Every structure is written in structure tokens, then in C-alpha cells.
Amino acid sequence: MTRLRAPRIHLSTVSAFALCAVLFVIATLHASGFASGDNVRQLLVFASFVGFAALGQTLVVLSGGMDLSVPWLMAFGGIQLSHWATGGMPGGAAIALVVLVGALIGVVNGVGVAFLRIPPIIMTLAVGGLVQAYLLSLGLLDSSGKSPVPAAAVSAASDRLGPLPIVAWVWLVVAVAVGLLLSRSAAGRRIYAVGANEEVARLSGIDVARVRLAAYALSGAAAAFAGVILAGYVGNTYLDIGQPYLFASIAAVVVGGASILGGHGTYWGTVAGALTLTVLSAMLPLFHLSDAGLKVVYGVVILLGVWLSQSGGELLARVRRRATISPEPPHSPEVTTSAP
Question: Which regions span the lipid bilayer (predicted)?
């Protein structure tokens, strides 16, 4: 079997973190309270929602796919949690079961994409629609269209452990684990290989269908958990609670330097993308722009982030190529001697 190497730290990831830092400094110069401890903690909580929603999206994109069922799986996470908790199930058990069922829904996506060869966009949209229909059939939403969530979810999203919210610590641990999975494990190398070139990966002995199935399963679990903590933070849940995170989950991946075509990127880049989007969303209202102006600036900054990340990756690739080319030694002139 051909030895496959996972990519090392990308300059694109560094570029994404740098853009986040620049935006944070600009916001702090405009409003000194932006850098306060309370505000930073709030930003980390908001970024964790994007980060968890984009976690599975990262794995799916790296393997050459896309998951458009993320917002409905987030809604499922919150509403199904409420359904089981109000039925008497302990909050912790309900959260674990929601994540497990989210993974099973992801498996359905994976079966459709990997085995039935249905295009990812069509398959995940269809599954999202089925999940939406199921949630409507529960009849849990009150007259305001909302449903309460158990105390365990509220605690997970709101309580602090030391200087940081619990959810931020959980996100950090998960980010380290996923980063190691992608960079240090055979499973991570297979994900990159499948996304880079499916046929070459298959000829190398990789079970392409299994890799894609696992990526979609993890995406379903991550999206369901994101819905749980988002509902816990808000204090209730509703059908459209995950809608803003469809765009955000994809934008965080590409701002972090991943190729939308697969095979290139890191979860740490996605973490940087999630932080960048969160800081950007929080700072723009400080400038009192019109709604149209906010959307224009938001779009321009995202395009800038994508350009910086992609340019950073290309620059690093050029540097590495040059480093592998050893220069030819200079030719020494031939010395000829004439016979006396």
C-alpha cells in the first residue's frame, strides 16, 4: 500500500489566525470594552457554536463532500433533547443519546453519498428535509414556536470552569483530538487521500466508501451536539435555530484554508475561521453601518480571509518545492596541460 502523509501545519492556518487577531485589534481600538474578559468569554462561547457545527463539515469537505443538513441536525439536537428530557430522561443521558442519533442520521447521509452515489448536496438536503418533517411531527413547540431545554444543556453552555466557559474547554479538547486524528493517524491520512483523489486512494487500498461514511457520521454527531449547546445557551430551542450555521459552518472551513474540493485543510484552520467569523460578527455593529453596509463588509472580509488563506497555502507550497530542489554544483573549469 502506498504510504500516505497527512499535511503539516499550513501557512493558511496561520493566515486565518492572523486575520482574526487583526480584526480583534481593530475592534478593541474602536471600543475598549471589546477586549474585556466578559466579552472575550462571550466570543469564545459564540465561536464554539460555529466550531462544533463546522467540525463535521471540515471532515466531510476534506473527504470531498459537503453536508447541507447541518442546520436541521442542530435543530434536531435541541428539540429532541427537549422531547426526551420532558419525558423524564436524565439530562446527561438525553444529550448522549441525541449525539448518538445525530451520528446515525449522518450515517444515512453517508450511505446515500458513498454507496448509492447520490450527489452530496442532493442527499444532505433531502435528509435535512426529512429531519425537519420529523421535528414538526413531534408537536413539542409551543405557540411561540419554541421548546424548553433541560438544565444540563443550560449548564454546559453557560457555566464556567476557571477563567473560561465549560463549552470553550470542551471545544479546546475536541480541537486537539481532531487535530491529532487528522495529522497523526492512519484515519486522518485516509480522509485527505480520499478528498485529494478518490481513484488513487482506492488503488492504494483505501475503502473510500467507509471513509466517507465515517465523515458524515461524525458530522451528524457534531451538528447535533452544536444544537444542544446552542439551545442550552439560548434557554429554549426552535425549528430554525440552526439556519445561520449552514453558511457559517462552510465559511469557517474555507476561511481556515481548506479546499472546498477536498484533500487540503486542517481543523485548526477551521477553528481560526470560526473565531474570525465570530469576531467579525461582533465588531461590525460597533461601526453603525446600515444593514446593506454590514452585509457588504462581512462578505468582503470573508473573501479577504479566503484569499489570504489560499495564498498562504500556495506560498508555503512554493517554498517547500524550492527547498526540495537542490541546486547543481558549479562546473569547475577544466585544466589542460600541454606537453613540453
Answer: 41-62, 92-115, 122-141, 161-182, 213-233, 245-263, 270-290, 296-317
In the DSSP assignment, the letter for residue 113 is I
Each residue of 248-271: pLDDT tens digit? 999 999 999 898 999 989 999 999
> What is the count of structural domains for the chain?
1
H/E element holding 164? Answer: strand 164-165
- Looking at residue 340, its pLDDT comes to 40
Q: What is the 3-class SS of 167-219, one letter each residue?
A: HHHHHHHHHHHHHHHHHHCHHHHHHHHHHHCHHHHHHCCCCHHHHHHHHHHHH
CA distance 274 to 272: 5
Domain membership of residue 44 (yes or no) is yes
Residue showing cell 438544565: 151
Helix-then-strand count for the chain, H and E: 13, 4
Residues 178-207 have a mean pLDDT of: 94
Total residues belonging to the chain:
340
- The residue range of the domain holding 221 is 11-320
- The reported pTM is 0.85
Asked if the structure places residue 183 within a domain, the reply is yes
